[in-house]
Amino acid sequence: MHKHPLEKFAYCPICGSKHFVLHTFKSKQCQDCGFIYFANPCAATAAFILNERGELLVVRRAKEPAKGTLDLPGGFVDMYETAEEGMRREIKEETGLEVGEVEYLFSSPNVYQYSGLGVHTIDMDYLVHVNGDVAVKAADDASECFWIPLRDLHPEEFGLLSIRHAVERFLASNR
């Protein structure tokens, strides 16, 4: 069972008061200055990139959590960018691939373990089609990237539970 993310915050980030108490299920309020902090999910993306041969581009995680396991290109959306812009940026950072159209598929809630904290996210999954032979090169959070036929995908090889469930959901809709 995950601890509530607000349990990690004992002091008001505005005035430093220790009277920073639970306000609602997803917020804390400072009893001294009145500041209310909401713990809303962060936006994250993952891409199902398919080529003309019906192969999916996968990456191998270079960092924890789940270092060494399979993953989909993706990551956190930065401030001031749309989810689609974040998706394109993450694809380029991890694979070197520049893509145009991205098509929204589905979303799911997730808790991403990072630096000892459960970061609540809303994972948005996208479909991307690429034509022809495209060169890919692993970088950033990916130690390796390669194409794999959909029939050879094994969801259990994906180390992050949310990605594993997304791959299962994607495969079920493409049978």
Task: Give me the secondary-structure topology.
Blueprint (H helix, E strand, L loop, with lengths): L19 E5 L2 E4 L5 E3 L3 E9 L4 E7 L8 E2 L2 E3 L6 H13 L7 E12 L2 E13 L12 E8 L11 H13 L2
Parallel strand pairs: 4-9
Antiparallel strand pairs: 1-2, 2-3, 4-7, 5-6, 5-10, 8-9
Q: What form results from the Cα inertia axes?
A: elongated
The helix content, as a percent range, equals 10-25%
Order of helices and strands: EEEEEEEHEEEH
Structural class: mainly beta
Low-confidence stretches: none
Strand order of the largest sheet: 7-4-9-8
Continuous helix count: 2
CA gyration radius, whole angstroms: 19 Å
**What is the percentage of strand-forming residues?**
35-45%
Mean pLDDT: 91
What's the story with the biggest beta sheet?
A: 4 strands, mixed
Distance between the first and last residues' Cα = 34 Å
3D structure, described in words:
- This protein starts with 19 loop residues before the first strand and ends with a helix.
- With 175 residues, the protein is mainly β.
- The relative contact order is 0.20.
- Strands 7-4-9-8 form a 4-stranded mixed sheet, sandwiched between helices.
- The chain is elongated and about 60 Å long.
- Helices cover 15% and strands 38% of the residues.
- The protein has 2 helices and 10 strands; from the N terminus they run βββββββαβββα.
Provide keyphrases for this structure.
175 residues; three-stranded antiparallel sheet; four-stranded mixed sheet; mainly beta; 2 helices
